[in-house]
Write a structure and sequence with these properties.
Blueprint (H helix, E strand, L loop, with lengths): L2 H22 L4 H5 L9 H24 L7 H5 L2 H5 L24 H21 L8 E4 L3 E4 H24 L7
Antiparallel strand pairs: 1-2
């Protein structure tokens, strides 16, 4: 990973974590569990999803890195860089999360949920800071974008937290959102 690539991922991971923690600070149980509609996720479910997503993606990256490099896919993945970098702000594009990263109430206590977010983000941050793997030569498919290289997946993770911060802001702006 190039120095500027590592710096981008680390800055985005840090800023999205700070924003998520700021958005959930001092929430009441009703605010944590409020849903705009029955099919939309609550704030607690968004946070759980961010944790599950990062755990899943870092696990997949580790597994993919054990396999052979696929440099023939580089050119195709390079054309997707703008999609990956714009993920957080592309709120009009909706994705259906893989079953494995959907919220199921793993941490019903919100203090434990926040502790798990911090722990998971610290692990993701450490991986991004320390890895010397050739992330640009290993790939796995995104549900909408197709094959992305493992560096692009780190960017997706860093953008993903910011994307859910925007979703939490939308929840908090809903007219029926419970007052504090």
């Amino acid at each position: 990973m190039e120095t500027h690539e590592r710096q981008l991922v680390m800055e985005q991971l840090a800023s999205s974590e700070a924003r998520l923690l700021e958005l959930v600070d001092g929430l009441t149980p009703e605010q944590w569990s409020f849903r705009e509609t029955p099919e939309r996720w609550s704030i607690a479910e968004n946070i759980e999803h961010v944790i599950a997503f990062e755990e899943f993606i870092t696990g997949v990256i580790a597994k993919v890195m054990e396999g052979p490099a696929e440099p023939d896919k580089k050119a195709l993945a390079a054309g997707k860089e703008h999609l990956v970098l714009g993920l957080a702000n592309a709120r009009s594009i909706k994705f259906n999360a893989r079953e494995v990263v959907r919220p199921v109430g793993r941490w019903p206590d919100t203090n434990e949920l926040i502790a798990e977010l911090r722990k998971r983000r610290a692990l993701t941050f450490a991986f991004a800071a320390e890895t010397q793997a050739d992330l640009r030569d290993h790939f796995f498919p995104h549900i909408a974008f197709g094959d992305l290289d493992c560096y692009q997946w780190l960017v997706v993770m860093s953008q993903h937290g910011a994307r859910h911060a925007f979703q939490i802001e939308e929840i908090k702006a809903h007219p029926a959102y419970p007052g504090s």
